[in-house]
Amino acid sequence: MTIETVEYPRTPMSERKPGTNWERIGWQYMRVSGVLLVILVFVHLYSNLIAGDGVSQIGFAFVVENKFSVPFWLIWDGLLLVLALIHGTNGMRTLVNDYVYKPGPRKALTVTLWIACAVEIILGLIVLIAFAVEPCIAGPGSASICV
């Protein structure tokens, strides 16, 4: 019994198309962001659910006083938001490329995915920035919730 080695065909450098290889960049992004997301998520979960008083500490006051008043946690949560949304959108783009065969619907779905991702990132960052600037919620009349 012999073991054969399968050689995959490679395109010589002289025959490759010039320009940016977006598929390769997307593949590399998924690997790097996946590792970073594991670290970001576990530290986020530890700091919110285990450290201090555990789950019982989580409330509006905790988030405003301990999380969003500290620039480190604002950047941490913003990075978590941006990396996770782009990572998920890139994964969905890969599924669309695998299962949608017609170029028109594939392009429409891909553009829709990236637009939705951009809108969610913008809205999420607006919330983080709004809490950093003014952590009060104006209620009806003169009532407001501040910490």
Write the layout of secondary structure elements.
Blueprint: H1 22-50, H2 60-67, H3 71-99, H4 103-133, E1 137-138, E2 144-145
Antiparallel strand pairs: 1-2
Helix pairs in contact: 1-3, 3-4
The Cα radius of gyration reads 22 Å
Instruction: Write down the overall mean pLDDT.
Output: 85
Low-pLDDT windows of residues:
none
What class would the helix/strand composition place it in? mainly alpha
* Sheet of most strands: 2 strands, antiparallel
Architecture (CATH level 2) name: Up-down Bundle
**How many β-strands, per DSSP?**
2
How much helix, percentage-wise, in residues?
55-70%
Succession of helices and strands: HHHHEE
In the CATH scheme, the class would be: Mainly Alpha
What is CATH's topology name?
A: 3 helical TM bundles of succinate and fumarate reductases
Give, in spatial order, the strands making up the sheet with the most strands: 1-2
Beta-strand residue percentage:
under 5%
The termini sit apart by 75 Å
Overall body shape: elongated
Transmembrane segments: 32-50, 70-87, 108-133
Keywords: Heme, Iron, Membrane, Metal-binding, Transmembrane, Transmembrane helix
Subcellular location: Membrane
Pfam family, one: Sdh_cyt
Structure description:
By secondary structure, the chain is an all-alpha fold. It has one domain (23-134): Fumarate reductase/succinate dehydrogenase, transmembrane subunit (3 helical TM bundles of succinate and fumarate reductases). The protein has helices at residues 22-50, 60-67, 71-99, 103-133; strands at residues 137-138, 144-145. Strands 1-2 form a two-stranded antiparallel ribbon. A hairpin with a 5-residue loop joins strand 1 and strand 2 (144-145). Helix 1 (22-50) packs across helix 3 and helix 3 runs antiparallel to helix 4 (103-133). The chain is elongated, with a radius of gyration of 22 Å. The N and C termini lie far apart (75 Å). The mean pLDDT is 85.
